[in-house]
Amino acid sequence: MKLRRPIARIVQSDAPDAYIAQDGIVMPVSDKYTSRVVLLSGAYAKQLLEWEDLNKKKKGENC
What we know:
This protein is of the alpha+beta class. 13% of the residues lie in helices and 24% in strands.
């Protein structure tokens, strides 16, 4: 198990919230702890939730 530090929280009304870690990994939220981080929402946030690792490019996409 690796400890990751969240840097932002993705918030959407039609999907579960998630955190983005320093290393680019998308993590689920916890029922027991809330990190004080920047909140992201909107169309860009929805795109981020589709990726598991923000450091990896989707095949055929320019990032």
